[in-house]
Structures are given as C-alpha cells and as structure tokens.
C-alpha cells in the first residue's frame, strides 16, 4: 500500500515493543515495521503498518504481513512521546477488502472509533521503549534505603560479573557483616545524575 499521511518526526527510531518483548519496531515518516520472533526456531514475522489517514492522536494504518495475502486496517492512538517511552493503544483489525465492497463506509470513522479499542472503561496503553534507551538527567540526587515486598522471584538480586557473589559485601570487599546493618540502598550521585545504583545488600557497619 501507498502511504498517504505522515507520523510525527519524534516517533521515528528503533523501539522495543513491551507488549511483545521478542519484537523490534522501526518507525519512519510513513511506515511502522515490526519484526517479531514467533517461536524458538527463530522464524520471523514481519508486518508493515502504512499510514493512511490521521486526526489528532489517531493514525489509521493499513497492515500487511509478509507472506500473507490479505491486508487489514488498524488504528494506532499515540500519546505524546516521553523521553524513551512511547505509549499507544491499538485497535482491532478490519479487513481492508470490506471497504472496497462497500465504498460508502468510512474506514477511519469505524476503525478509529473508541469501540474498536475495546469496551474497557479503563483504557490500557502499551508502550514502545527506545532501543537503545538514551539516558537523561535525573531530577534529584541522594541516598535512600528501600524494602522489597513483591514475590521472591521478582526481587532484585545481588550480582557481580565474573562469578559467584559472596554475601554480604561492602564496596566490593567481602566481609562479615552483622545482619542488622545490612540494608538495600538506592543511590544517585551528584556527578553521575544519569545513573541510578541499587545495592540490595549494603553493609552500614
């Protein structure tokens, strides 16, 4: 399909799709190209979304998947880009041939209707993450302690590259530390405000 509209210039780039971490997304002025790994054998699914019509934050695109015979209309609703994050909603897909059979029907009106995004009152947005992300200045600095309360499988673990990590530790030196002095610490230094350092087992002894 031929493009007939443009995406905003600040959407262009390479992204990771958080709705499918195995997918990479390339966006230029007129196309969204998604390359997704479908299975463990490395088979790739390539889909092109071509801009057809736009109004405000909504973009009607025609989706074509490599190796398939049919194309579909889909609507993307983008939020304003926030640094490395691009939030979006994606509508249901509609076969484009349907609108050739019924030329009086308006694909933008139907595909970008709020009902095409689902009936959930609390609309959920997916996110593209810039790949690779570009660090920005953190608006605050300092040192804090934190406590982890989620499931054990999702907690931050102490890791050091190159081997097994003895515990507890202090500034890279392996020592014996009284458990009452072991804390989880979060640090943002004044001279390195683009980096955040988390230490799950910092010894304050």
Automatic annotation (TrEMBL):
Protein name as catalogued: DUF7043 domain-containing protein
Source organism of the structure: Rotaria socialis
Signal peptide coordinates: none
Domain of life the protein comes from: Eukaryota
Domain DUF7043: 3-123
Biological process, per Gene Ontology: wound healing
